[in-house]
Design the sequence.
């Protein structure tokens, strides 16, 4: 081509056309090469995680949305006896949150599609897989070019496996839907807790689980006001765990959990309420030895005496408070609630709305 020789003779309109064509060609070349370059960068970061290693299958860019998509993200623990990946994410979508631009903030939103998080607790620490090893999370966060203001999980799964041969137990939450919004408070809302969180899931035995509340991560210390509801789950499901750690063989009944928690200025205040209905403790007699038989008889007797007869309900409300790194439960209040449920009024199967951040602020 001899365009450069005749450049001076071209009209302004023709020059502009050639410049636009050249810019378009450069952008097209960059667009074609960008996914490969980004994929190499991401895999490079994942290969150098502390305590974990990871990989991805593919990267796709969407310049018009200001987004990129990662497919086939997998994180594995480097050492130990874990046989399954720590995290699997078939699809991850990261984009600019255009709605936040109206409030003057350049922030991002992250969507995880059908993620599977596998946690493993074991007697040998090397075999544990709890995500506490190394600083892998900081490296993964470096892949996100924006400050996140919105985080969503679609149809996720979390498993918690107690790897104990004597008392195997796997707690599995399916159909996890989670949404956290206004994480960075871009709109500068004049609220004490501007960010919102809502999560729902279903435990493996069909019990619904709900976590909901508000939080603020923008200050020097985190603040939050949360509530948790877990509808009754069959106690037979938890029996291996109860046999191992409480030496009880439960043959029937269900368990519901309800909790509230407020955190501010390094202080925590809350409670955990449990309701066990139609509970049946199996008494093995001499099968497990005289001491085991005695303990089972005492436990069954105590449950019978301290349960609410009208609702066949054994329940208590356990308050906790103190510093976030060292809080404790109220023993006397817990025993009092146990007796109140039995002889005065049965505890309700819901959250009490008795914990608030305002009350915690007044105490401080």
Sequence:
């Amino acid at each position: 081509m001899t365009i450069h020789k005749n450049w001076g003779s071209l009209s302004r309109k023709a020059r502009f056309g050639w410049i636009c064509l050249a810019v378009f060609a450069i952008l097209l070349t960059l667009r074609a090469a960008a996914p490969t370059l980004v994929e190499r960068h991401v895999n490079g970061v994942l290969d150098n995680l502390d305590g974990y290693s990871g990989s991805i299958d593919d990267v796709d860019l969407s310049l018009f949305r200001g987004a990129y998509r990662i497919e086939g993200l997998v994180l594995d623990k480097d050492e130990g006896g874990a046989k399954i990946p720590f995290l699997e994410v078939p699809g991850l979508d990261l984009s600019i949150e255009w709605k936040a631009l109206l409030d003057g903030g350049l922030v991002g939103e992250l969507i995880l599609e059908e993620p599977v998080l596998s946690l493993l607790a074991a007697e040998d620490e090397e075999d544990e897989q709890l995500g506490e090893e190394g600083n892998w999370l900081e490296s993964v966060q470096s892949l996100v070019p924006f400050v996140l203001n919105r985080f969503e999980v679609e149809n996720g799964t979390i498993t918690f496996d107690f790897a104990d041969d004597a008392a195997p137990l796997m707690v599995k939450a399916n159909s996890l839907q989670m949404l956290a919004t206004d994480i960075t408070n871009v709109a500068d809302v004049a609220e004490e807790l501007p960010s919102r969180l809502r999560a729902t899931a279903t435990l493996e035995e069909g019990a619904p689980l709900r976590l909901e509340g508000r939080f603020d991560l923008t200050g020097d210390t985190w603040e939050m006001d949360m509530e948790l509801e877990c509808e009754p789950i069959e106690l037979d499901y938890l029996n291996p765990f109860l046999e191992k750690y409480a030496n009880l063989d439960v043959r029937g009944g269900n368990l519901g959990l309800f909790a509230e928690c407020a955190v501010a200025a390094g202080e925590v205040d809350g409670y955990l309420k449990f309701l066990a209905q139609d509970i049946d403790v199996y008494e093995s007699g001499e099968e497990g030895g005289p001491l085991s038989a005695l303990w089972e008889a005492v436990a069954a007797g105590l449950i019978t005496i301290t349960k609410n007869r009208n609702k066949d309900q054994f329940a208590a409300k356990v308050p906790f408070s103190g510093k976030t790194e060292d809080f404790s439960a109220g023993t006397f209040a817990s025993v009092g609630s146990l007796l109140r449920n039995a002889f005065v009024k049965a505890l309700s199967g819901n959250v009490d709305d008795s914990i608030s951040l305002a009350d915690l602020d007044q105490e401080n």
Q: What stands out?
A: The chain has two domains: 35-190, 210-364. Helices lie at 12-47, 98-101, 136-141, 239-245, 290-306, 331-343, 357-363. The longest strand covers residues 148-163. The chain has a mean pLDDT of 79.
